[in-house]
Amino acid sequence: MAPVPQPGAAVVADWHRDADSREFFSRILHKKRRRKFSLLESPVMPPHLAVDTVHYKVFISGKSGVGKTALAARLAGRSIPSMHYETTGIETTVVYWPVKLRESGRVLFFRLQLWDCGENALRRFDHLLPSCKEQLDAVLFLFSFTDRTSFDDLSNQIAKWSGPSDRLVKLVVGTKYDLFMHSDVTEREVTRFQEEWGSPVLRTGGEVSDGLGDVAALLNGLAENLWHQDCVAASQHSQQATGTLI
Amino acid sequence: MFGGGQGVLLSSCETERGGKVVWRVFQDSVMLIAVNGGQGGGGGSSRGEELSLQRLLENVWSSMVLVLGQDELASVRNVERLKRDLRSCFSLIDQLLEEKQEGIMGNLTHCADCLVPPNPTLLQEAVENFTQAADSEFGCLMVHGRIAVATEKWWRLAPQEVVLLSALMRSLSASGSASCDYPVFLPHGSPTVAHRLLRFQLLPGADVCVLCGPTPSLLRAETTLVGRFWLPLADTLRDCLAVGERCLPGSVSLRPDVLALLLINRETRRSVSCVRASSDSSVPSRARCWELLKLFYIFSTTRYFSQEETLCVSPEEKPQRSSCEDFAPGFSHQPLQCYLVTEECKCYTLQTPQHQLFLLTPLSVPTFALRTVATHTLSAITAATGF
């Protein structure tokens, strides 16, 4: 996998706790809960605080029942479905997340569109996977702490997605971390995996709280990697062609 | 099954405590069995209960076809695999069993639940242009889980398909996702070849969908079409959302003595229904009104009015079914109106060649005035909306 920036190197970690972030985070909240954005809506900032929005497409990969739909719901601040139902097609979720860049102090809204598709549907209908891959920026590889096989299968999953010339952020997310009593995957194994792949393993699980604290690490990590990838691409691009800026 | 071996047709049975068991074999392959607990709905009559259970069986079968396709269900090669695959239908089937959303009558009536928007022309145009731009002829705008406008071809789908697609859209919409690309089989129109149902959440409560072939991709439709066609109409959509669960625009003024109504257009197989909010404690609650409306519908359609035959009955099954239906009514004429006075409210049904109106009023309305209330209500709605 591509070298990953040190967490917190490019974006301010835990920025949602700082006072200067309130103005921005209030745009994605409604009555102390996360606002849900439909396609015709976006966070509206007052004119003097106009902020650029960057768009990314993120695919959630992982075996059936691992918690793909639940992760999308969690990241968007929606309530997590109490029953497990198979996702029988593609469902996308829009997440807006304000991020402060460490170097310039500039604030950006990340518009992350999460693409979630049930494994069985992917297998039964050939057209779904190409549709998910179209203009993709990142893949989240999910495994569940309560399902050993989903962890063992990670390297296969990741290998499937490595093309020669791809610009793709790849992150590993362990779900159901709260169910550590039933954990099938040990800390040591996770550490070994991180060393081997040079990529941090992000964790998620438990109750959804105010919709900021429990997802900030994951969303900031994802945003940082996406931003880093764009910066690398932009610098390569400007080396090749003379100084065109993206 | 035992009777079938002896050449006897048994279509349902009852338990000692009033529970009812109804079953049906589909495609000579799958038998679905529905059981209810007895006290459940049905207008108190056994035939009424049977109607709602039969409807349930049809709807469940159709949702199975919608998700999995008929081939997989009709020629079962591996039962274990089928059992696993059937899990993908559970979400829709649970929705049919739970009937969570108030005011959705389509599962029972097989008429599409509609909402009449205050400004239909603009929306109709937008749906048509959007659908065309998405290389499709089948498009529909849903507001609060009901169809606000749809293309002509959408209305030519089998009524049951329209109802089922609406149910699917409601469950997708409730999940809160922004857009979807779902493979769907049409139980009547295309049971073996899947189409793509693209759905976009325009505003919370307002979703547009198209049924299309291989193109356009979800990403392309979303990035190039949704904003172009719908952003200019955001305010019109908000007006439409403001109609709320009343389902009728402000231009229709209902008489104060109408508690709840269900209006079916028999030609187009569409329906609107609403329950009026009331703080008066002498009238039944909203939830109870919806329940009463359903019970009264079942009561009048099983006793007096023929239902529009939209059941997915195969030709070879038809003679068997009609033989038991000729039996029951026992009328030499076709009733046009009926009324019922209960302890909770008064009910009135009015049938014209084009419409069926089911009406609930408070007990305070004199029985002799019910007919006037009903005819006024019908003409008020049809005159203002052309429904």
UniProtKB/TrEMBL annotation, chain A:
<comment type="similarity">
    <text>Belongs to the small GTPase superfamily. Rab family.</text>
</comment>
<keyword id="KW-0547">Nucleotide-binding</keyword>
<keyword id="KW-0969">Cilium</keyword>
<dbReference type="InterPro" id="IPR001806">
    <property type="entry name" value="Small_GTPase"/>
</dbReference>
<keyword id="KW-0653">Protein transport</keyword>
<dbReference type="InterPro" id="IPR027417">
    <property type="entry name" value="P-loop_NTPase"/>
</dbReference>
<keyword id="KW-0963">Cytoplasm</keyword>
<keyword id="KW-0342">GTP-binding</keyword>
<keyword id="KW-0206">Cytoskeleton</keyword>
<keyword id="KW-0970">Cilium biogenesis/degradation</keyword>
<dbReference type="GO" id="GO:0003924">
    <property type="term" value="F:GTPase activity"/>
</dbReference>
<dbReference type="InterPro" id="IPR039677">
    <property type="entry name" value="RSG1"/>
</dbReference>
<dbReference type="GO" id="GO:0005525">
    <property type="term" value="F:GTP binding"/>
</dbReference>
<keyword id="KW-0966">Cell projection</keyword>
<dbReference type="GO" id="GO:0006887">
    <property type="term" value="P:exocytosis"/>
</dbReference>
<dbReference type="Pfam" id="PF00071">
    <property type="entry name" value="Ras"/>
</dbReference>
<protein>
    <recommendedName>
        <fullName>Ciliogenesis and planar polarity effector 2</fullName>
    </recommendedName>
</protein>
<dbReference type="GO" id="GO:0030030">
    <property type="term" value="P:cell projection organization"/>
</dbReference>
<dbReference type="GO" id="GO:0015031">
    <property type="term" value="P:protein transport"/>
</dbReference>
<keyword id="KW-0268">Exocytosis</keyword>
<keyword id="KW-0813">Transport</keyword>
From TrEMBL, chain B:
<dbReference type="GO" id="GO:0005856">
    <property type="term" value="C:cytoskeleton"/>
</dbReference>
<dbReference type="GO" id="GO:0016192">
    <property type="term" value="P:vesicle-mediated transport"/>
</dbReference>
<feature type="domain" description="FUZ/MON1/HPS1 first Longin">
    <location>
        <begin position="5"/>
        <end position="96"/>
    </location>
</feature>
<dbReference type="InterPro" id="IPR043971">
    <property type="entry name" value="FUZ/MON1/HPS1_longin_2"/>
</dbReference>
<dbReference type="Pfam" id="PF19036">
    <property type="entry name" value="Fuz_longin_1"/>
</dbReference>
<feature type="domain" description="FUZ/MON1/HPS1 second Longin">
    <location>
        <begin position="136"/>
        <end position="230"/>
    </location>
</feature>
<dbReference type="InterPro" id="IPR043970">
    <property type="entry name" value="FUZ/MON1/HPS1_longin_3"/>
</dbReference>
<dbReference type="InterPro" id="IPR026069">
    <property type="entry name" value="Fuzzy"/>
</dbReference>
<keyword id="KW-0963">Cytoplasm</keyword>
<dbReference type="Pfam" id="PF19037">
    <property type="entry name" value="Fuz_longin_2"/>
</dbReference>
<dbReference type="InterPro" id="IPR043972">
    <property type="entry name" value="FUZ/MON1/HPS1_longin_1"/>
</dbReference>
<keyword id="KW-0206">Cytoskeleton</keyword>
<comment type="similarity">
    <text>Belongs to the fuzzy family.</text>
</comment>
<dbReference type="Pfam" id="PF19038">
    <property type="entry name" value="Fuz_longin_3"/>
</dbReference>
<dbReference type="GO" id="GO:1905515">
    <property type="term" value="P:non-motile cilium assembly"/>
</dbReference>
<feature type="domain" description="FUZ/MON1/HPS1 third Longin">
    <location>
        <begin position="258"/>
        <end position="383"/>
    </location>
</feature>
<protein>
    <submittedName>
        <fullName>Fuzzy planar cell polarity protein</fullName>
    </submittedName>
</protein>
